[in-house]
Design goal:
six-stranded antiparallel β-sheet
């Protein structure tokens, strides 16, 4: 009877009814999320209470898509759960990654939806239909509808005999049918359970033990089979690989806690057979303690100690013959011989045990003796290898931690003190002797008045002196070879190395007498010079006369010779006064020279001047010269003056959002040591008061394809501002860039984007921006810029 009721209920649940007109709802999904807070994550509908069936179609006719779509319903409008399709759907899953049609029985829901939980690309078209006809699963016939469900579950089912007629929902489980749960303890009746066609596994657990009558199970930890026969017991197993013969004696094999049966290989008590265990004999004295029995049940090791014997190479002391009192057993000869008893000395206190006694052995007489030690004192503990010293004027000897032989460095006498080693004289011995020092900073030496220090320096790679606390100076070292009579000069900047200049001292010109300041220098004999207040006619070479010209210029017979000053390499000579020439400092390579008027000329980078118009005006039509955004942009307009017909950007300056931008290229010969300058030019418009300010930013991109052409802006500077006073007046404000650096990808040849933003001035009306100029310092090079 129970089975009939269940079958009837299921037939009613799955029965198809007459189809009514659907109400399609269409939408698309183009994003994904865990809910529908983003509307494009879902397509959802509210369904009438009488809705008995619904379909959700995921279409592909409008384009391709990929992702995962969940089918869900809610009974309270807040909590959504997965809906399971009926059997005649494209699949039985509550989600899909492909197109198809899924049918549902949504009678318990007030809303249903399709939600994308994961989306890769594309847009998924969704169509949701609903009607008051139940979802078909392939059956036919006619009948009514119900809003209640028959639910199968693994627990919580109705009692046996419950009837489902659609008037109320019913849940059924194993209990409704009078069946036992698979997860519960069950007792089967006295029936034959034929498992002859099955493969059976017994209960398995780590360290399993049998605890009840008829229980059997497998201990997976030790690989043993357990059964209950009043107590937990092991079931003995014979490995399939073992092949015993008739009358073989059985033996146990134990391996890692696993017990199995094995064959002894012979009949019990026959005395024959084999054993897999070994008896090991060695001469190391590491055998088992006496007594030891070997019967093959386990391996054992025996040695001379097992049988109470001594090793052949020696004998125990207890086995030696007794000797006379106060003797030692030794070889008291100068060669190889058997040991004999040698008497200890008796001439000292208690033999030779007094405080002033010392035990000695004479290798000539081969006998012990006893010496008497005179004097007294204390020897304190110390470190092996360290030298000892008298700790005071007494007889106490202590360890000297500052001096050791081989402790700090092998085969080396090491001094660890900081005060140095004082010696009246130091002499090396041997033909190859010398002084060796490890290079350092000389920090361990203490300079002072009356002290002269010498140490090897790790920076100079040579010796340094500090005489009378005058500071360290390098010891001068000469070259490996030189020419006799040549002058020497320093090599490098350390001051410690000299070199041969190649100039003979005999060829050096020297002064015959001291020069007079401001006078000319003239020859005064072999390799001699002197000074003179003027150059007399007799001082000129005889081959020249007043009519002689040099490079087209006649030498005057009379007049004034002017002082040319000291020339500077790379400098430019100029007239410093009416009686004095001078020379400028050297400039940077490729700079240009500009006049200083009556002052010295100077050298500067070539200032390239770039003009970037903000707008233009063609007749009455204005066009932007700068790039402007879709929002927060200035208005492109014509100035429309009587004379000025140019284009302008009408700019609201009382905010921090109105902006525009333009680009220019840094020349490939840009002097990267000097930042370019900007200058913005604008008209006051109708403003007669208030301030106008600007904020400038820059962004650079390289021309080698290594960085993005959409770089981020870096703030440059904010102008101090101008105060408007009269309408329609022209203003300008300038500053130097600060962040056109290589770290911001601004290098020679880079493209620079300049962004101009309102600086939140107080002028109430717009201003008319006409242009911005950029001045770039260049070190001129002929190139393709």
């Amino acid at each position: 009877m129970k089975k009939i009721l269940v079958i009837l209920a299921l037939l009613l649940f799955q029965q198809g009814f007459a189809q009514v007109s659907p109400h399609p709802y269409k939408g698309t999904i183009s994003t994904a999320g865990s809910d529908c807070s983003t509307s494009t994550n879902c397509v959802s509908v509210t369904i009438p209470p009488e809705t008995a069936s619904a379909t959700i179609t995921v279409d592909a006719t409008s384009g391709s898509w990929s992702g995962t779509i969940q089918f869900e319903g809610t009974t309270d409008g807040t909590h959504w759960i997965a809906m399971t399709p009926t059997s005649n759907s494209s699949s039985s899953s509550s989600s899909t990654t492909s197109t198809g049609v899924w049918q549902f029985n949504p009678s318990s829901y007030i809303q249903i939806r399709a939600r994308a939980s994961a989306r890769v690309s594309g847009t998924a078209p969704i169509v949701i239909n609903w009607s008051n006809a139940t979802a078909s699963s392939g059956g036919g016939g006619s009948g009514g509808t119900t809003t209640h469900t028959l639910t199968g579950n693994s627990s919580g089912g109705a009692a046996p005999g419950t009837t489902f007629n659609g008037s109320a929902g019913v849940t059924f489980d194993y209990h409704t049918f009078g069946a036992a749960a698979l997860s519960a303890a069950n007792t089967f009746g006295a029936f034959l359970q034929d498992l002859s066609a099955s493969t059976v596994k017994v209960p398995t657990a780590g360290s399993f033990t049998a605890s009840a009558s008829s229980m059997i199970g497998y201990d997976s930890t030790n690989a043993n089979l357990h059964a209950w026969n009043g107590v937990d017991s092991l079931v003995a197993l014979l490995a399939a690989s073992i092949s015993p013969t008739n009358n073989d004696c059985v033996k146990w094999t134990v391996a890692a806690g696993k017990y199995t049966l094995n064959t002894a290989g012979a009949a019990c008590g026959s005395g024959g057979g084999t054993t897999t265990n070994s008896l090991t004999i060695n001469s190391s004295g590491s055998g088992g303690a006496s007594p030891q029995t070997f019967n093959g049940s386990s391996p054992i090791t025996i040695s001379y100690n097992t049988v109470g014997a001594a090793p052949a190479s020696g004998i125990a002391l207890s086995a030696l013959a007794t000797q006379a009192a106060d003797t030692t057993v030794m070889n008291a000869t100068g060669g190889s011989a058997s040991p004999t008893a040698v008497a200890m000395p008796t001439s000292g206190t208690n033999g030779c045990a007094g405080a002033s006694n010392a035990l000695i052995y004479n290798t000539t007489t081969h006998a012990y003796g006893c010496n008497t030690i005179s004097g007294s004192g204390t020897v304190n503990s110390g470190t092996s290898g360290h030298y000892a010293y008298y700790a005071s004027s007494t007889n106490a000897v202590s360890n000297n931690s500052n001096l050791d032989d081989g402790v700090t460095t092998a085969n080396t006498l090491t001094y660890a003190g900081s005060a140095g080693v004082a010696s009246g004289a130091f002499t090396t011995s041997g033909s190859n002797g010398g002084v060796t020092g490890t290079e350092g900073t000389c920090a361990g030496l203490t300079a002072g008045a009356g002290k002269d220090l010498l140490c090897p320096n790790s920076t100079l790679h040579g010796w340094e002196f500090n005489n009378n606390n005058g500071g360290y100076v390098p010891a001068v070292a000469g070259p490996t070879s030189s020419t006799s009579g040549n002058l020497a000069s320093f090599s490098g900047t350390s001051g410690g190395i000299i070199q041969d200049t190649g100039t003979a001292a005999a060829n050096v010109v020297t002064a015959a007498s001291n020069y007079t300041s401001g006078q000319f220098v003239k020859a005064a004999g072999n390799n001699k010079t002197t000074s003179s207040a003027a150059i007399a006619a007799g001082d000129l070479p005889a081959a020249l006369s007043s009519s002689t010209s040099v490079n087209g210029t006649s030498i005057p017979s009379s007049g004034t010779l002017y002082n040319m000053g000291t020339p500077v390499a790379g400098g430019i000579a100029y007239g410093a006064s009416t009686s004095q020439y001078s020379t400028t400092s050297a400039g940077t390579s490729k700079q240009i020279v500009i006049s200083g008027g009556t002052s010295a000329p100077s050298m500067i980078d070539f200032p390239e001047h770039l003009i970037i118009p903000a707008a233009n005006c063609n007749s009455s039509t204005a066009g932007a010269g700068w790039s402007i955004p879709a929002s927060n942009a200035p208005t492109v307009a014509c100035r429309a003056g009587t004379n000025n017909l140019g284009g302008v950007l009408q700019w609201a300056n009382n905010n921090t959002t109105t902006n525009a931008q333009f680009t220019f290229q840094l020349p490939t010969d840009w002097d990267t040591g000097t930042q370019p300058y900007w200058n913005i030019i604008y008209g006051s418009g109708s403003n007669t008061s208030g301030t106008v300010k600007w904020t400038i930013s820059s962004a650079c991109t390289k021309s080698d394809g290594s960085v993005t052409d959409d770089p981020s802006f870096v703030a440059e500077s904010t102008s101090s501002g101008k105060t408007m006073a009269v309408a329609n007046r022209m203003w300008a404000e300038s500053a130097q860039f600060a962040n056109l650096t290589s770290g911001n990808n601004c290098i020679a040849g880079s493209t620079v984007v300049v962004k101009i933003v309102s600086g939140n001035g107080t002028a109430s009306s717009t201003v008319n921006v006409e242009q911005m100029t950029i001045t770039v310092p260049r070190l001129l090079t002929v190139q393709a810029d």
